[in-house]
Amino acid sequence: ITAAADAWARGAAGLPKPWQPQKPVLPVEGMRNVLITSALPYVNNVPHLGNIIGCVLSADTFARYCRLRNWNTLYVCGTDEYGTATETKAVEEGLTPQEICNKYNAIHADIYRWFDISFDYFGRTTTPYQTTIAQDIFQRLLARGFLLQDTVEQLRCENCQRFLADRFVEGTCPFCSYEEARGDQCDKCGKLINAVELKNPQCKLCRGIPVVKPTQHLFLDLPKLEERLEPWLEQSWATGDWTANARYITRSWIRDGLKPRCITRDLKWGTPVPLDGFHDKVFYVWFDAPIGYLSITANYTDQWEKWWKNPQQ
């Protein structure tokens, strides 16, 4: 209290000078360097107050606090633009996926400017850097034996001549009989669904009845990581700041045993898979999208690795 009273008595003249970072903002030796991101908003909608309060505003508040503390701070964000939802929105509006992304990225950027969100850089995931970094991570996983190939039974619409990604299928939920369930989740009972489990499935594009056919996909071989992951988690739980919910969910995954996770999709709109036999597929958006944090930083500065591969600072 005494220190606060003394600082107040000295007035503004006694305050440290505001830190003016170089452009682009890069880590500085000897300073506290803070990289802030907020969840990448999906591109196929107009942001509303819930979106802004849910992630963007809280990160913005923290970024402003860090700058007031004279910490060297970089705050980046951008629109998440690949995946089935973009293709679906493009069909609805009669546009190409790229046109949808261009349209809604501009709307997002304008709204955040209007709210005076203090991004140092607001980008997007449909960039050459995204392709380069995502494919590089994929190649590293492949070289280290963390990928496997398997056959998946999937719905195919012969009328549209395409395998149907989860959101291109609708039908009756096998759990609660809701008649408008999607191929990935039922919005009524909330349960996750494998599209081939739907009763009375329909292609969302042409309303035709799809058939079940085999197709090849690539999987992250997550069981290979269990032995290394468990001791890391125990240490992180003991020393980190995990929420009770995060601990519970993670423990349930470990308890039930990690399962291989499919990372490819039979879509056109996405990061291409750079492997023979898979050139007609793209990466699943949940493999691809988190890499957007790296690629957006790379679009801000070609020295992006100083932020993402520099644990000493």
Which labels suit this protein?
Rossmann fold, 313 residues, 37% helix, alpha+beta, Methionine--tRNA ligase, cytoplasmic, Rossmann-like_a/b/a_fold, ATP binding, three-stranded parallel β-sheet, four-stranded antiparallel β-sheet, 12 strands
How would you characterize the overall build of this protein?
The chain is an alpha+beta fold and 313 residues long. Among the domains are: 21-135 and 285-309, HUPs (Rossmann fold), CATH 3.40.50; 157-212, no CATH class. It is built from ten helices and twelve strands. The protein has helices at residues 2-10, 49-68, 84-93, 97-114, 128-143, 226-239, 244-256, 285-288, 292-300, 305-308; strands at residues 33-37, 72-79, 121-124, 147-157, 162-163, 169-172, 181-182, 199-203, 211-220, 261-262, 264-265, 282-283. The strands form four sheets. Strands 5-4-9-10 form a four-stranded antiparallel sheet, with no helix packed on it. Strand 6 (169-172) and strand 7 (181-182) form a beta hairpin. Helix 3 packs across helix 4 (97-114). The longest helix is centred in the first third of the chain and has 20 residues, at 49-68. The protein is globular and about 75 Å long. The chain starts with a helix and ends in a 5-residue tail after the last helix. The mean pLDDT is 92. GO terms for molecular function: ATP binding; methionine-tRNA ligase activity. One of its GO terms (cellular component) is cytosol.
